[in-house]
Structures are given as C-alpha cells and as structure tokens.
C-alpha cells in the first residue's frame, strides 16, 4: 500500500535576519526527518512549541519548499507534482485564520466550493452536504463572527473537506474548545477515518492523541524522537507492567512478600495508601495479583506507562496539555 505521506532526510531551514544580531544565519526547523503516515490512518504529531510541526504541515500543504530531502504525498513529489498533491490535501488550521467572519457559514462554504471549480448547482449541493456533515445546518445563515470556538472549528473542518481530499492536515484542531465540542470534533475525525481518509493531526493533548490516533510521532528540535501506537508506546520507557493497589494499614510485610516473588522488580508508593508494583512478565503479574487479593488489597488495576509518561521522559513538560 502507498503511504499517504513519506519523508526521507527532510531538512528545512529558515534564513535569519542578520540585523537581529543573533550570531546565527539560519534556524534549522526540520533536521533529517524520516516519517511515514499509512493511508487510512489517524497519525498524531506531538511536540513542544518550535518542534517543527507547523513547518512539516506547510511543506506537505505545498506552501513551503523543503531545503533538502524527499517528500511524497500519495507517492507524488511535493516539489515537482505540486498541483496533483494539492488536489489530495485539505488543511484545517485552528482559530480565526481563513474564515470570513462577516459572512454566514453557508456563504463561506459557497465561496470555498466555488474555488474548487465546482459549477453553481454542485456548489450548492456540496455546501448543504458539508453543513450536514459538520452539524451546522441550523446555524448556516448566521454570521461566523457570532460563532463559538467549537462551531468555527467545525466550519474549518467543512472548509478542509470542500475539495474531498484524501489527506487532511489538522493543526491543533481542538485547542481552546470546551470538552463537549472537543469530543464531538474527535468523533467527526473518527467518522472520516472510517470513510478511509488519512488524517495527520498536530496536538499538545496527550488524551486526544491516545483516543483518536492509530500512531503518534513525537518530535522535538525538528527530529523524530519516537513513534508508535499510542497505547503501547509506553514500552519505550518501561518494559514492565504495573499493578496498582490500595492498602489500608501497615503495608511493609506485603511489600516484602511481593518483592520475594520471581519477576517482581519493584514496589513504590504513588500516593498515600496507594502503591505500585512493577513486574517483568505475565506470570509475575498474576502472582502479585493473587497475593494482593489474599492480603485484602483493593482497587487493583494493571497498566503500562501511558503516552504522557513517554512524552515527559523524552521531551519534558514543555508544551504538554493534559486534562
Ligand atoms: N518564518 C520563520 N522564520 C524563522 N524561523 C522560523 C519561521 N517559522 C518557524 N521558525 C522556527 O522554526 C522552528 C520550528 O517552528 P514550527 O512553527 O514549525 O514549530 P511548531 O512545532 O509548529 O511550534 P508551535 O507548536 O509553536 O506551532 C522554530 O524554532 C521556529 O522559531
């Protein structure tokens, strides 16, 4: 299967103004970046401010040229096959950018659909279809300036879908949304995935990445630090499974007995009355669970390190949003 996105040795620099007297002549935004986004997947790009996410999206959107390296969208070179690449992509940036706030939602969509070269009846039909899809039919004739952040973002999504793209680039689509709007937006992303669209999503939100992405790539300083399924990426920072439990009363003897079990590699207190055992394999997890049940421990859970922990370990808490 062709990858929706493939970059090899991608480098992008920006020339710096000599008058700024920084002592540097350029800033390296992307550094030998190799990335593959499988067709039909939702792929998250995570990283702090300045990591290079927007630069990458702009290159894929063909508004910025790579300095070096190869970049292909559905197998097509962004430098030499720009027109064809453009036909396959839709871009959704956050905030006010790109919306005509004095026009209504319907007028905005008529305009964008017309820009895609559709004839008048097709423009109308496509506009109605998009309004329906993003749940704005009831508000279609209101001026966009009165829209909430969530409604504006839905209209952005409709705009991104106007040309029926195969790849959607979503740049922090839920930043600043209330939780209900953000959840609705994510279920729209899920629906688009089911229709076979590929989605590349930049986000600072770990929960969002875990909920909607099939694969996440962590980038910092223009380099890929890690990539994988957000639900199993925890194996990068620890191979161990965890068992957490609550214990009322003295716990020392139970901890000693746990540490005597083969394959139990550690036991720590995570908060008052709550403890965490780390185990090296499934047998050790089972033995620890059975001992804990015997000793009257409660609220037992098993887990692996989550994406948030991987991010903290590799990048630190710069640019991270968790709810
Ligand atoms: N036009 C420009 N001129 C000079 N430097 C730039 C320009 N655009 C971006 N940069 C620099 O390139 C690096 C990558 O920036 P980029 O905007 O791609 O990061 P980002 O991951 O999207 O950050 P954010 O989360 O803040 O949007 C940063 O060091 C930034 O300062």
UniProtKB/TrEMBL annotation:
It holds the Pfam family ABC_tran. It is a peripheral membrane protein. It comes from the Bacteria. The keyword S-adenosyl-L-methionine does not apply. Keywords: Antibiotic resistance, ATP-binding, Nucleotide-binding, Transport. Signal peptide: none annotated. It is found in: Cell membrane. One of its GO terms (molecular function) is ATP binding. CDD domains: ABC_DR_subfamily_A. Residues 5-246 form the ABC transporter domain. Belongs to the ABC transporter superfamily. PANTHER family: ABC TRANSPORTER ATP-BINDING PROTEIN, ABC TRANSPORTER ATP-BINDING PROTEIN NATA. This is ABC transporter ATP-binding protein.
């Amino acid at each position: 299967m062709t990858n929706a996105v493939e970059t090899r040795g991608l480098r992008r620099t920006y020339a710096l103004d000599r008058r700024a007297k920084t002592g540097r002549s350029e800033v390296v935004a992307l550094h030998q970046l190799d990335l593959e986004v499988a067709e039909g997947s939702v792929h998250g790009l995570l990283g702090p401010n300045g990591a290079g996410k927007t630069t990458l999206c702009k290159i894929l959107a063909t508004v910025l040229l790579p300095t070096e390296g190869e970049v292909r969208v559905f197998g097509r070179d962004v430098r030499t096959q720009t027109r064809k690449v453009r036909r396959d992509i839709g871009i959704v940036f956050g905030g006010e950018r790109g919306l005509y706030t004095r026009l209504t939602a319907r007028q905005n969509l008529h305009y964008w659909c017309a820009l895609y070269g559709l004839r008048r009846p097709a423009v109308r039909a496509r506009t109605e279809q998009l309004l329906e899809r993003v749940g704005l039919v009831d508000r279609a004739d209101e001026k966009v300036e009165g829209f909430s952040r969530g409604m504006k973002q839905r209209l952005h999504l409709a705009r991104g879908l106007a040309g029926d793209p195969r790849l959607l680039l979503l740049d922090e689509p839920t930043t600043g949304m209330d939780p209900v709007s953000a959840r609705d937006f994510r279920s729209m992303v899920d629906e688009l995935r089911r229709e076979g669209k590929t989605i590349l999503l930049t986000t600072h939100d770990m929960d969002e990445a875990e909920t909607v992405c099939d694969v996440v790539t962590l980038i910092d300083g223009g380099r890929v630090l890690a990539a994988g399924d957000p639900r199993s990426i925890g194996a990068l920072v620890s191979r161990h499974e965890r068992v957490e439990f609550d214990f009322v009363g003295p716990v020392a003897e139970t901890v000693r007995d746990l540490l005597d079990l083969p394959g139990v590699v550690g036991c720590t207190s995570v908060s008052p009355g709550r403890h965490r055992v780390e185990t090296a394999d499934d047998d050790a997890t089972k033995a620890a669970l059975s001992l804990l049940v015997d000793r009257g421990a409660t609220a037992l859970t098993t887990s692996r390190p989550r994406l948030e922990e991987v991010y903290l370990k590799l990048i630190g808490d710069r640019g991270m949003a968790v709810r």
